[in-house]
Specification:
seven-stranded parallel β-sheet, Rossmann fold, 12 strands, alpha/beta, 2 domains
């Protein structure tokens, strides 16, 4: 048996409070368990300058009296937010948001743990532009900020419908979309958002009926791109007769945003078609279809060869896809997507039913992209192509094996998209 005094002198300095690394263990130390009388002793030993955790472990394991040597792995408290949902009890959101934590949800809670470990909880530091009907972002005149989007949640946007600096929502759609992306959590209010630490830029291009013209939309996309947001969410579609030659200004705006390094996420459309609607059909947009609570493509969701991913969009009806065990088109039991928005006139907030569609699916992908960017796994300012490839590579395969026209690369998986690289005990 070795003596304690010799161990500490020979094998390194004990660190009182080492810094945590992003890979799930302490970068500059190894946990060593020694055979010392009368009982084994465990110490944290510093990795020598110029060496690595793996090399230090290998050297220590060869020494007499060393029972084990491993990376100093980091554990974090995995919390369940207290948001009450509709039942009014802490954690009640879990009964409502199947799309975040259910078997066919996006695995948001594990992603939140990953982001806490990365030091950017909830996607902090990322800005998402919601180009939509506006957002309930301010207390001004007859307008009221959403009670679940309080705090420093917004950056300055613009209203391209009324041509002013106040992109307030008069419809509720944009607020619902923004809430899926970034609704506050663990505050005892409402439900939860995917990237609750991200900030939202409200850009109003759709009016109180949810309609907007191509000029306003193109201007809104360019505005957000010039402000260097990280992500633009487009939860709307043009009709099936609109082709690329009909919207050249929008396509030019999309190319402009892409060149600026902005990821653009768009809804595939709700027309049950076998091709994706514009603007999501553009090569510069990550197109998103919708799935139901059973993990089947929603009956309303557009599909086709240009579909990139799917995400929860809700609704009771599955698409009639032969051979897909998740699809039960004869049943009508799938739930909608619940987020805090208007229950009537602007200023009356709640968790209304009736929100289903690829408009609801797209912000799940925007929120997950915000988490992936904030995680640092892809670098400090990853290119849109790198983000897209990563989200596709980490998606859950649905339907026939591999990418297909019904599900694209698969169901977005926030936990997999934010998981640090696996670390073995020997490297």
């Amino acid at each position: 048996m070795l003596r304690r005094s010799l161990l500490l002198a020979a094998l390194g300095t004990v660190l009182p409070a080492p810094a945590a690394g992003a890979a799930g263990y302490v970068r500059d130390e190894v946990v060593v368990r020694y055979a010392v009388a009368p009982a084994p002793v465990t110490r944290a030993v510093k990795v020598p300058a110029g060496s690595t955790v793996a090399a230090t472990i290998a050297r220590l394991r060869e020494r007499p009296g060393v029972l084990s040597a491993t990376p100093n792995y980091i554990a974090r408290a995995s919390f369940v937010p207290d948001d009450p949902g509709r039942i009014g009890l802490p954690g009640g959101w879990l009964q409502l948001q199947w799309n975040f934590a259910g078997p066919w949800g996006i695995n948001a809670p594990d992603a939140w743990d990953n982001l806490a470990r990365a030091g950017h909880p909830g996607g902090s530091g990322v800005v998402v532009a919601v180009v939509d009907t506006g957002v309930a972002y301010s207390d001004r005149g007859r307008f009221t900020r959403s009670p679940d989007l309080r705090g420093n949640r917004f950056v300055r946007g613009y209203d391209f419908v009324d041509d002013d600096s106040y992109p307030n929502d008069l419809n509720g759609h944009g607020t619902h979309v923004a809430s899926t992306i970034a609704e506050s959590i663990d505050n005892g209010v409402g439900v939860t958002g995917v990237a609750f630490g991200a900030r939202i830029m409200p850009v109003r291009v759709l009016d109180k009926r949810g309609e907007g013209d191509s000029l306003a939309i193109a201007r809104g996309i360019r505005f957000a791109a010039r402000k260097r947001v990280h992500i633009i969410n487009l939860s709307f579609e043009f009709g099936r007769r609109v082709s690329a030659r009909d919207i050249p200004d929008i396509l030019d705006a999309l190319r402009f945003a892409r060149r600026k390094g902005v990821l653009i996420v768009g809804a595939s459309g709700n027309s049950r078609r076998d091709d994706v609607s514009y603007p999501a059909r553009s090569d510069d947009v990550l197109s998103v279809g919708a799935t139901t609570e059973r993990g089947c493509r929603a009956k309303y969701s557009n599909s086709g060869p240009t579909l990139d991913l799917v995400a929860p969009g809700g609704g009771p009806r599955d698409a009639p896809l032969r051979g897909d065990p998740n699809c039960r088109p004869g049943e009508r039991t799938g739930r909608d997507i619940f987020q805090m928005t208007f229950t009537g006139n602007p200023g009356a907030f709640g968790l209304p039913a009736g929100y289903r569609g690829t408009s609801m699916a797209a912000p799940h992908v925007s929120g997950t992209a915000a988490l992936a960017i904030a995680s640092g796994l892809l670098g400090s300012r990853p290119a849109p192509a790198a983000i897209e490839a990563h989200l596709k590579a980490t998606a859950r395969d649905l339907g026939t094996p591999g990418p297909d026209e019904h599900y694209g690369a698969g169901l977005i998986d926030a936990a997999a998209a934010t998981a640090p690289p696996a670390v073995s005990s020997s490297g």
